[in-house]
Automatic annotation (TrEMBL), chain A:
<dbReference type="InterPro" id="IPR036188">
    <property type="entry name" value="FAD/NAD-bd_sf"/>
</dbReference>
<feature type="region of interest" description="Disordered">
    <location>
        <begin position="303"/>
        <end position="323"/>
    </location>
</feature>
<dbReference type="InterPro" id="IPR015939">
    <property type="entry name" value="Fum_Rdtase/Succ_DH_flav-like_C"/>
</dbReference>
<protein>
    <submittedName>
        <fullName>Succinate dehydrogenase / fumarate reductase flavoprotein subunit</fullName>
        <ecNumber>1.3.5.1</ecNumber>
        <ecNumber>1.3.5.4</ecNumber>
    </submittedName>
</protein>
<dbReference type="InterPro" id="IPR027477">
    <property type="entry name" value="Succ_DH/fumarate_Rdtase_cat_sf"/>
</dbReference>
<keyword id="KW-0285">Flavoprotein</keyword>
<feature type="active site" description="Proton acceptor">
    <location>
        <position position="326"/>
    </location>
</feature>
<dbReference type="GO" id="GO:0008177">
    <property type="term" value="F:succinate dehydrogenase (quinone) activity"/>
</dbReference>
<feature type="domain" description="Fumarate reductase/succinate dehydrogenase flavoprotein-like C-terminal">
    <location>
        <begin position="491"/>
        <end position="604"/>
    </location>
</feature>
Automatic annotation (TrEMBL), chain B:
<dbReference type="InterPro" id="IPR017896">
    <property type="entry name" value="4Fe4S_Fe-S-bd"/>
</dbReference>
<feature type="domain" description="2Fe-2S ferredoxin-type">
    <location>
        <begin position="6"/>
        <end position="93"/>
    </location>
</feature>
<dbReference type="GO" id="GO:0046872">
    <property type="term" value="F:metal ion binding"/>
</dbReference>
<dbReference type="GO" id="GO:0006099">
    <property type="term" value="P:tricarboxylic acid cycle"/>
</dbReference>
<dbReference type="GO" id="GO:0051537">
    <property type="term" value="F:2 iron, 2 sulfur cluster binding"/>
</dbReference>
<protein>
    <submittedName>
        <fullName>Succinate dehydrogenase / fumarate reductase iron-sulfur subunit</fullName>
        <ecNumber>1.3.5.1</ecNumber>
        <ecNumber>1.3.5.4</ecNumber>
    </submittedName>
</protein>
<dbReference type="InterPro" id="IPR006058">
    <property type="entry name" value="2Fe2S_fd_BS"/>
</dbReference>
<keyword id="KW-0408">Iron</keyword>
<keyword id="KW-0560">Oxidoreductase</keyword>
Length: 630, 256, 260
């Protein structure tokens, strides 16, 4: 083993961890504010999970409906999040989203257009007006590519001035950060990372670090997220001493593909049901009719005949229960599977093949037809799809200060995008994630650069580097002792645990059991053994990612156990109602020497002029008694 | 549901050398080549290096060559092979290998930097851009590109002639020049940048002999040759090889 | 392929399909046409059987052309021209097809093997593509396109003349008329589906929205252009069939079946 001093060090002003939408937007802003900025990402530059986003970017540009404005967008966002949103974030987000979208155009983005040449906007669930700027169904790709090309544009400017493309903005691709390092006084001093290709260690010293690592979906068995989503940023924040907020809120989409295995979790768009697709269990029954809750009884069809008539005549018929809100549908699917009436691969059947002629299916659902044909070799015009809930997005995340995105208690650490919590409250609206990335990515970059400009030179102590290095190499030591654990096995068990016990429907006993299992997995993870060398060794990479997934999973489970209500992305069978008394309560999750601890924190009261945007009656449904009194 | 044992030959090695290694591995219904590679990792070859990400054909990470053809591993279903067929998987052969199926694609990032970025028009602020759908359609097609670099890999100009890498940007980045040249608001010309001339003189458009392999391998079905490269060649002719255009310009310049 | 740093794989390719079939078939097809057309172009005989003139010999521009009543023959070249008059005119369609973006692909692949097929290594040590003379001349394609337009126009005129009988009376048609009709449709479709044409009618524009008519034209040409390869082959075959038909009539192999 080489001595610690051989770990290379580089000095930067701002280090951005993650090169998705938020990370790149932060890096662009930091560089423009004058900071020498390094971006670190696990994949190749331009491959981040942002490319998977389809729908669009929510921004009240009022191109499609002139009545739209930030206040309406703010209202929609707060309602969607069941008023748990960090309201100042929701306000800034609604106000700044249009500028962020227009800015993309000046960097070369090409959105779909309205007839008069402006950016076209489409309807989406929860948004009062057509609001989503989009490019077909590949909006995320357009957003990411535009930011990537803007980064390259800035590098070209730097090259003209300095002769070096990477003088002020450099992307370290295929690097993984394992630790945020701090100096003696507790301020951020840099990051410890390794190059995935070679296993080489590298320390980037910087007074400001922006976390933009995305979500946690890979802790669940069925997810629409990519392998990168292992909760890295959340775990890095925890280990650096910054708390996470409201981690219990995880969004599950009711219809993800469950079969074949290669595409498990990939989304099946809601329009399949909107266009006539029906859900059936293994007995062939359209089970959704058995799951219409009392509050919705009047709005949904009672017979299949009536439901079928709705597609042609929505005025005189009630809609079929397949079109209930996402959480209801997901709950029903879950219940059918648990009752043993699921499909062979643990989902239910979503069928359009018996509902429409093949030609109609191909015309109305071309992307779905294509997706199943290409990825699954399933002809949806001839057979039913198998679908089930899939883990899609985490609303909780690193607790941040609304305006600066600074984390709580760790000077120099910032977080933006899915890794940050608060903005979406308990449930995110479609389209609000891409705008979130842009608005808070920019703010993170700006404030990180400002902070770095006023901060002392970052110094990372030898001890901290040695400790991080030892931690990263630990999985290789396991193999010498024998009886080591296989990281793949542990990962599968964790995913199964989270999926079964802290999944879409939660129960007290199951969550307690999950915590026990996670504790056991954590013990076994200490004995992980990987073979081979550090060069592009996937087993080693997974072993290091597991630490993060275990930490974050425990936060999710603990917070979910603590919050004794159902709200947004947190559904408890034993506490089915939303409790107003929980509205002003945030759950902060910290990692200490004694393990994960939870703290209840009262939220800052919503500003009066923002409350005034809502009717009193509506507020009465959400706010706690004492808030209404005030 | 059925399961069978498939015969795989996977290139294992690094820049120092390597060879095709045989594996027998279980295959289940509905799987793609990437699933099989992952199964090998989890069961027989824990250090088998492979690059991947979204597994849905949207990120362009898992590019490789399967039975000699450049493809995305996540979009190649096992059902397209006969059960007794040997499936050979190698890294992309136009780029330096890092290890096993992972190649060093930095060539592409270098080329990306050589194409000057979009030049925003002077006098138009954010929110003031007006473009018609028919004017952005062409560039939008090219922006579907997921940068899997399969077109770069298959293009014989660099695949068979390493020495051309210096002079030739490759289909993906010539398409990027076309995209910007067709962008309705790109102000490169006003800024003194002639994208057409540079396409020929700096990015090596003349090397392309339009044999269409880039179009054949594109997983996004972008018609690279017909819609980007040939129109770009025609635009270069306008600029460089059309005496009528040249004459017209000269006369106009005289008058002005 | 075997440059340092790349994966050390000895095989020129690892394709398991019949990748050689397509270039082999292309080469065979093109060679057959070249052989046939060379024979016919130099033959200087059997190219007129009233009212049909072989497309290889139209317009007929030399003094030594056989007389064709109403036909497009002007003796621009005097009696000093002793070779086949086909050679005077064939150079234009030949140039048009030789520089055509589809045919370039076809012969680069099948004759030059650059490359023979995708991901199959080419045998050449060096490659400069179309950056130098003579292949730089491929950029002249659009001028051959311009030249191809009047040629196609004259062939259209020839087709109109086929609505006569062998005594030059109008209002008749035979099997030959049909052959000529099919040929001229294919010739026009191939000519108009040309990539240069697509560029000239609209492709060179930056703002389609400011030129709605040219945008419409560009869309139409684009639709044809998608079938440029098929049209290239179909028109190549039809022009040969057309000529063969005239040849057979002229040699008296059979009589033109008359419809009316």
């Amino acid at each position: 083993m080489s001595p610690v001093s051989s770990v290379e060090r580089q000095r930067w002003d701002v280090v951005v961890v993650g090169a998705g939408g938020a990370g790149l937007r932060a890096a662009i802003e930091a560089r423009r504010a004058g900071a020498r900025t390094a971006v670190i990402c696990k994949s190749l530059f331009g491959k981040a999970h942002t490319v998977m986003a389809e729908g669009g970017i929510a921004a009240s540009m009022a191109n499609a409906n002139e009545h739209d404005d930030w206040k309406t967008h703010f209202r929609d966002t707060m309602r969607g999040g069941k008023f748990l949103n960090q309201w100042r974030m929701a306000e800034l987000h609604a106000q700044e989203a249009p500028e962020r979208v227009w800015e993309l155009e000046t960097w070369g983005a090409l959105f779909d257009r309205t007839p008069d040449g402006r950016i076209s906007q489409r309807n989406f669930g929860g948004h009062e007006y057509p609001r989503l700027a989009h490019v077909g169904d590949r909006t995320g790709l357009e957003l990411l590519r535009t930011l990537q090309q803007k980064v390259v544009g800035l590098q070209q400017e730097d090259h003209r001035e300095t002769g070096d493309h990477e003088a002020r903005l450099k992307v370290f691709q295929e690097f993984t950060v394992t630790r945020v390092l701090k100096d003696g006084s507790g301020n951020v001093a840099g990051v410890f990372c390794y190059e995935r290709e070679s296993g080489r260690f590298l320390v980037l010293e910087a007074p400001a670090v922006v976390l933009a690592t995305g979500g946690i979906g890979k802790s669940f068995k069925v997810t629409s997220n990519s392998w990168e989503y292992t909760g890295d940023g959340q775990a890095l924040a925890l280990l650096a001493g910054a708390p996470l907020v409201n981690m219990e809120f995880v969004q599950f989409h009711p219809t993800g593909m469950v079969w074949p295995p290669s595409v498990k979790g990939i989304l099946v768009t809601e329009s399949v049901r909107g266009d006539g697709g029906v859900l059936r269990n293994s007995e062939g029954r359209r089970f959704m009719f058995d799951y219409v809750p009392d509050v919705f009884k009047e709005k949904y069809a009672e017979s299949e005949e009536e439901g079928d008539r709705w597609y042609e005549d929505p005025e005189n018929n009630r809609r079929p229960p397949e079109l209930l809100p996402r959480d209801e549908v997901a709950r029903a699917i879950n219940a059918e599977v648990k009752a043993g009436r699921g499909s062979p691969h643990g989902g239910v059947f979503l069928d359009v093949s018996t509902r429409m002629p093949a030609e109609t299916i191909k015309r109305r659902l071309p992307s779905m037809y294509h997706q199943f044909k290409e990825l699954a070799d399933v002809d949806i015009t001839a057979e039913a799809m198998e679908v089930g809930p899939t883990c899609h997005y985490v609303m909780g995340g690193v607790a941040v200060e609304s305006e600066t995105t600074a984390t709580v208690g760790v000077p120099g650490l910032f977080a933006a995008g899915e890794v940050a919590g608060g903005m979406h409250g308990s449930n995110r609206l479609g389209g609000n994630s891409l705008s979130d990335l842009l608005v808070f990515g920019r703010r993170a970059g700006l404030h990180a650069a400002r902070y770095a400009a006023g901060a002392a030179t970052a110094e990372v102590g030898e001890e901290a580097v040695a400790a991080a290095r030892a931690e990263a190499l630990a999985p290789f030591d396991g193999s010498s002792e024998g009886g080591g654990e296989n990281p793949y096995t542990l990962h599968q068990e964790l995913q199964q645990t989270m999926n079964d016990l802290v999944g879409i429907i939660r129960r007290e006993g199951e969550m307690a059991e999950a915590l026990e299992r996670i504790a056991a997995l954590r013990e076994r993870a200490r004995r992980i053994a990987v073979e081979g060398h550090r060069q592009f060794n996937p087993g080693w990479h997974l072993a290091l990612d597991l630490r993060n997934m275990l930490l974050v999973s425990e936060c999710v489970a603990r917070a979910a156990l603590e919050r004794t209500e159902s709200r947004g992305g947190h559904t408890r069978e034993d506490r089915p109602a939303m409790e107003r008394s929980w509205r002003p309560v945030n759950l902060l999750c910290r990692a200490g020497d004694g393990g994960i601890t939870l703290e209840r924190v009262r939220t800052e009261p919503i500003r009066a002029d923002l409350l005034a945007l809502f009717d009193k009656e509506e507020l009465a449904k959400y706010l706690a008694e004492e808030e209404l009194d005030a | 549901m059925s399961t069978y044992q498939a015969h795989f030959r996977i290139w294992r090695g690094d820049p120092g050398g390597g060879e095709l290694t045989d594996y027998t591995v279980e295959v289940h219904d509905g799987e793609v080549v990437l699933d099989i590679v992952h199964r090998l990792q989890a069961t027989q070859a824990p250090d088998l290096a492979v690059r991947w990400n979204c597994k849905a054909g949207k990120c362009g990470s898992c590019s490789a060559e399967i039975n000699g053809r450049p493809r995305l591993m996540c979009m190649t279903r096992m059902s397209v092979f006969a059960r007794d067929e040997v499936v050979t998987v190698t890294p992309m052969r136009a780029f330096p290998v890092v290890r096993d199926l992972v190649t060093d694609v930095s060539f592409n990032y270098v080329k990306a930097r050589e194409i000057p970025a979009f030049v925003p028009p002077a006098g138009l602020g954010p929110g003031e851009y007006r473009m018609r759908q028919e004017d952005v359609d062409r560039s939008q097609e090219f922006r579907k590109c997921i940068e899997c670099f399969l077109c770069q890999d298959t293009c014989h100009v660099v695949r068979d002639h390493e020495e051309n890498k210096e002079a030739f940007a490759g289909p993906r980045f010539l398409m990027r020049v076309a995209e910007l040249d067709m962008h309705p608001l790109d102000a490169a010309e006003e800024a003194g940048l002639d994208r057409r001339r540079t396409a020929q003189e700096e990015h090596g458009l003349g090397y392309c002999n339009i044999t269409k392999c880039c179009t054949e391998v594109c997983p996004e079905s972008i018609r690279i040759t017909d819609n980007a490269l040939i129109p770009l060649k025609e635009r270069v002719v306008d600029r460089k090889y059309d005496p009528l255009v040249w004459l017209g310009k000269t006369i106009r310049r005289r008058k002005a | 392929m075997r440059s340092p740093g790349r994966a050390s794989i000895a095989a020129r390719h690892l394709r398991t399909d019949r990748w050689w079939l397509s270039p082999a078939a292309t080469a065979a097809g093109l060679l057959a046409f070249v052989a046939y057309s060379t024979w016919r172009a130099f033959a200087n005989a059997h190219y007129y059987a009233a009212p049909y003139v072989s497309p290889f010999y139209s317009p007929c521009l030399a003094d030594n052309c056989v007389p064709m009543r109403g036909g497009p023959n002007w003796a621009l070249f005097g009696s000093w021209w002793g070779l086949s008059p086909a050679l005077l005119i064939l150079v234009f369609p030949l140039g048009f097809r030789l520089t055509c973006y589809y045919y370039r692909k076809a012969y680069y692949r099948s004759f030059w093997a650059a490359p023979p097929a995708c991901a199959v290594a080419e045998p050449h040590r060096a490659y400069t593509g179309e950056t130098r003379f003579p292949l730089l001349l491929q950029n002249l394609h659009r001028y051959f396109f311009y030249a191809a337009l009047p040629v196609a126009g004259i062939l259209t005129y020839d087709t109109a003349l086929t609505f006569r009988d062998s005594h030059y009376a109008w209002g008749h048609a035979g099997l030959g008329t049909l052959v000529f009709l099919v040929n001229i449709v294919l010739i026009w479709a191939y000519t108009l589906s040309c990539h240069s044409c697509r560029h000239i009618v609209g492709g060179r524009l930056r703002h389609f929205s400011k030129h709605p008519v040219r945008y419409r034209l560009w869309t139409w040409v684009g639709r044809l252009n998608r079938r440029h390869m098929q049209l290239a082959w179909a028109s190549l075959i039809s022009v040969a069939v057309c000529d063969l038909y005239v040849y057979l009539l002229a040699t008296g192999a059979f009589d033109d079946p008359r419809f009316f």
